[in-house]
Amino acid sequence: MTKIDPTPPAAATGTNGEDAFPLVLRRVAIDTYRENVAYLHRDCALYRAEGFQALSKVEVRANGRRILATLNVVDDPRIVRCNELGLSEDAFAQLDVANGQPAMLSQAEPASSIPALRRKIAGERLGRADYQAIVRDIAEHRYSKIELTAFVVATNQGELDREEVYFLTEAMAQVGERLDWRERLVVDKHCIGGIPGNRTSMLVVPIIAAHGMLCPKTSSRAITSPAGTADTMEVLASVELPIARLAEIVREHRGCLAWGGTAQLSPADDVLISVERPLSIDSPGQMVASILSKKCAAGSTHLVLDIPLGPTAKVRSMPEAQRLRKLFEFVAARMNLTIDVVITDGRQPIGNGIGPVLEARDVMRVLENDPRAPNDLRQKALRLAGRMLEFDPDVRGGDGFAIARDILDSGRALAKMDAIVRAQGARPFDHNAPQLARLDFEVRAEAGGVVTAIDNLQLARIARLAGAPKVKGAGVDLLRKLGDTVATGDVLYRVHADYVADLEFAREAARRSAGFGIGSADELPHLFVEF
Amino acid sequence: MTKIDPTPPAAATGTNGEDAFPLVLRRVAIDTYRENVAYLHRDCALYRAEGFQALSKVEVRANGRRILATLNVVDDPRIVRCNELGLSEDAFAQLDVANGQPAMLSQAEPASSIPALRRKIAGERLGRADYQAIVRDIAEHRYSKIELTAFVVATNQGELDREEVYFLTEAMAQVGERLDWRERLVVDKHCIGGIPGNRTSMLVVPIIAAHGMLCPKTSSRAITSPAGTADTMEVLASVELPIARLAEIVREHRGCLAWGGTAQLSPADDVLISVERPLSIDSPGQMVASILSKKCAAGSTHLVLDIPLGPTAKVRSMPEAQRLRKLFEFVAARMNLTIDVVITDGRQPIGNGIGPVLEARDVMRVLENDPRAPNDLRQKALRLAGRMLEFDPDVRGGDGFAIARDILDSGRALAKMDAIVRAQGARPFDHNAPQLARLDFEVRAEAGGVVTAIDNLQLARIARLAGAPKVKGAGVDLLRKLGDTVATGDVLYRVHADYVADLEFAREAARRSAGFGIGSADELPHLFVEF
């Protein structure tokens, strides 16, 4: 191959294409957050980048693999030279080749499911084959961010009927890896989210596993919330485990608490999330497809699903909660998944801590039967675990809660958690002296009365601004909950941060709205939920 | 300000935020194609980039200005150092500051119209104030690409009623600059697009201006087509003129043919196009709002609007064309714009050339009354000009065509074109020896018969792949048109390209489909259109 000097550009442009073919791959140390970007020098002899730019995506081939990327045009040879093809970190990792290897570039053909996408945009109902084609293209990163968004908006709200939700769920479950535990009963629980501090999985899994049922729990990391179960579990143990090691742990201990990302269970979902989250679109159809496709791909046979209801929860009215419940039940039945949907109290955060270390502290206090353990977290975990235990044919209907409580009170849940933590790779953590972030400030009551409202969204935002989940010790420590009586000047919550800028962002947000309502006892919103 | 050494990162991370505040601005020579991107080093002391990344956009303030950008995280100090804030070329140009100036970075508040956007996504009808808020946010680049796409998809097709189209048009016209020519009659013409080679504006403007009517024509460059009027006019003259100079030329010559981009007439439209084009969404509501908002902002009082109809045109049936016509008429009336909508023959490209130089050759041949001039281009331009001339109260109904023909045949149109070209800054061009791209290949008839179909989309694609419009001399030269009789092996068209790779891309596309249908004379599709 002829070596092309990056400067002057004129020399390169004058060269005929054939000599420079193919390009030399180069890792560009830019993290573009789930969007593949290819960087090409403006004077690239062969392709002259501009011809490509307006046209959707480019296709990069190397090492027998093929990825699609958005093209950025570069004028700085320190980033890429004329004969080089730069790739952002994600894109580079997907190709899995070394720097300097040859790569081919071409204009990407539009994804073959685009006509189906257009029909959906135009309001048509799509069939099973359409969803399979669309989901395959999405999982293979053949959709641009614009096309992804178009799909998410076009399938929003009333635009999907329940058969379509089933087709979408099935297609999403089929496209990735599928685990088979070769057991009759593989139980899981899932919460639709939106409630800070709600770390019941870390209590439910050791209880269920101690009972002997198989509970291979994989969880997500936070995207826009202050902590996901994987972030909090990571305070205690490693959560990024190869799938083979995970299987070993599950076989030995009957449960695990790992990050689901390595398993590639529903790759289309991971891609869709990248546009759903920024838009805060979480329509019933998309939520059901996302959750149930992952559960089926993970090999679950039985699922307890938690729908929290409250004025600042994701679901804000009982009719809405019931509609969502029916949709989960309809699709789960078609996917051969046994489901038990519970509608729970989502009026405020669960537990006291919001942020990985604070939440891990709460969880360990519950497991150790520490008197400082938050009772709402304990009660909710026991009730969920009780429902899951009743999937066991040998458990009498109604006995689940008592069995769960016995497993927790006797210390068997703690012993099981210790075993899982050791198996995954324990990290040093002392819940009596949790390593909180070094800076803090307190938010105090500006009037006396009864706490009548706690805004889930605002407290999540404050914890997030304080640095959670990236700063494990950052977040919010709630000292008051709904129904508590406070005097003027009482501390409502404490905010922890490691960095001055984070602390100030959080302080400013808390100043605009503390997220607490204080009034009289009769203003407390009542809820008639299962628990 | 404390100078922070880019390596080792640990040193920078250990520094407290306050010292490093603000960041140092740096132009990063990456062209991200209409998307502002900010680059921050992963170890940036103050902000620790990751905390920002999942959350929509960041706000950059410098020089009293403020822009929003998507954040990319960088691990290479040659791109940005720990104390620097890198900006992509577009973003850097928008701030209009020098390298090394201080800049502040914060998390962007969500655009204030997002709740209205969410209502539209949920299928609600929006009011005038909603559209004004949304369009303002879009014009100020406060929407992410994802939010933009959500707006475009949610307002697609049947989702906008005609009142809403009017609100959207009005909001788009109000948000940018507005020209006022201080004359009673300011005429313009516009085609909804999709027909290659359709360069009637370059004939209509000199004819109308020679008649003495004011015709300040601003045009677009091609985005996904092989040439826009601005690209073709640029073969003859400069088209990027400061608005003051443009006004002088128009006052002196009664017309101009300039690029509309410098005028900032409908900045929201420029932003929306960046997602509409890749999705090929061109819904009636969005098309009407886009076109009429620009015309009103440009100060036009009278408009002839061309809707080409044909099997590979944008509009493919007469009922669809009529519906679109009514929508244009409804909105134009409310915007106080006099409109004359004509439905024209869109079954094939207009003229012979597709690509800037080839089209400029055709236009000049018509103006010079050269016998080689394509007659379809001449006829269409005369008819459109005739309709525009009839906006003049002194022209009798039906006389427009004859007046236009007289202006063209007498050489007055050519003289006016020469004057405009000189005023804008002439470029050397000889239509008897146009500078075509140096490489070419021919596409020949594989069977004998009559040309019964020419695919506008495929010929545009081939011309685009050959390098048009970036390579001015590239494109397609049509030697046969609908109804022509050909023998096996006759040349249908010639493709010109400057680069081997482009030539091969175009050849491959032509091999897959030449874009010509050959059959018997009775298979020619008939159309009953005005002209």
Describe this structure in words.
Two copies of one chain form a homodimer. Chain A has four domains: 9-107, Barwin-like endoglucanases (Beta Barrel), CATH 2.40.40; 114-175, Transferase, Pyrimidine Nucleoside Phosphorylase, Chain C (Transferase, Pyrimidine Nucleoside Phosphorylase, Chain A, domain 3, Up-down Bundle); 187-424, Pyrimidine Nucleoside Phosphorylase, Chain A, domain 2, CATH 3.40.1030.10; 439-523, Alpha-Beta Complex (Aldehyde Oxidoreductase, domain 3), CATH 3.90.1170. The first copy, chain A, is 40% helix and 19% strand. Chain A is built from 20 helices and 19 strands. Chain A has helices at 9-14, 17-20, 50-53, 89-95, 114-121, 128-139, 145-154, 162-175, 201-211, 229-236, 243-253, 267-279, 284-297, 318-334, 356-367, 375-389, 400-409, 412-424, 456-465, 500-512; strands at 23-27, 30-31, 37-41, 58-62, 65-74, 84-87, 102-107, 187-191, 215-219, 255-259, 302-309, 338-345, 353-354, 439-444, 449-454, 475-478, 485-486, 491-497, 516-519. In chain A, the strands form five sheets. In chain A, strands 1-6-3-5-4-7 form a six-stranded mixed β-barrel. A four-stranded antiparallel sheet of chain A has the order 13-16-18-14. In chain A, helix 8 crosses helix 14 (318-334), helix 10 crosses helix 15 (356-367) and helix 13 (284-297) runs parallel beside helix 14. The longest helix of chain A is centred in the middle third of the chain and has 17 residues, at 318-334.
